[in-house]
Design a protein that fits this description.
With about 280 residues, this protein is of the alpha/beta class. The chain has eight helices and ten strands. The structure holds adenosine-5'-triphosphate. Keywords: ATP-binding, Nucleotide-binding, Transport.
Amino acid sequence: MTTLLQAPDRADRAAAPQTPAAGHVQVRGLGHTYDAAGRVTRALDGIELDIAPGRFVVIVGTSGCGKSSLLMMMTGLVSPSEGSITCGGMPMMAPDPDRVGVVFQEASLYPWLTAQQNVEFPLSLRKLPKAERAARARERLALVGLQGFEDRYPHELSGGMKQRVSIARGLVQDPPVLMLDEPFAALDEQTRITMGDELLRIWERTGKTVIFVTHSLTEAAYLADEIIVMSARPGRIVDRIEVDLPRPRTYAMMSTPRFAALRERIWGHIRNQAGE
Ligand SMILES: Nc1ncnc2c1ncn2[C@@H]1O[C@H](COP(=O)(O)OP(=O)(O)OP(=O)(O)O)[C@@H](O)[C@H]1O
């Protein structure tokens, strides 16, 4: 059976032959103005980004600064007024689950389908043999730690488990990039930390590029290779912070001076923006 997992760990992946920058995300001169029934909102301005394959990048900024808008544009769900976005060198003109998997804050699972059927659903639009669809979905559910829960319906799963199903669904077409918009915001603090660890484990194992939007400075510093800080609306990039904390990240790191310094640097920007 062909495995969907591309490399057992990051060290092996570095030595493996490279696919040509499939997970490279590039944003050039991106700006966006919403015009809803004459109410004009300048949401984003002059965004330039280069995200290398396999990086874990977190986007933070004050409420309403355009984080979700930027992510929606990178997924191809919304077209920007100006500028361009490419993934793997090809423009993102529309959602393309073969290139970018997406996970939202709400799990948005079909309540009448089981976990297995929810994960399989995107594959039903492709002409894949039924057995292969089922095998892929099972493998993805196992990857997110839900082996044995394939036949459960969403109402039989906890909030964290539902988000695991969403992540499995986002990864079912094996895209090189996974984008997540505040995926753990609705979860309690303990589950949120556990899910962060789970996501890091999945990222380490699969080598995807991850782009993650959050309000939480702690989550940003805990997860990221790099934190992108946006200004208040119209959102611009005001800082890009390399997170030099060692991996694997641990809960104990959150109480170190390095962690506090990172949070302080992000908070400095956010405080300034909020005061403007
Ligand atoms: N579909 C839309 N039509 C009109 N205006 C919109 C639309 N979507 C977002 N906006 C506006 O664009 C701005 C940026 O919104 P966006 O949701 O991208 O910000 P955000 O940083 O993700 O916010 P939050 O952190 O509160 O979730 C806001 O002023 C919002 O009101």
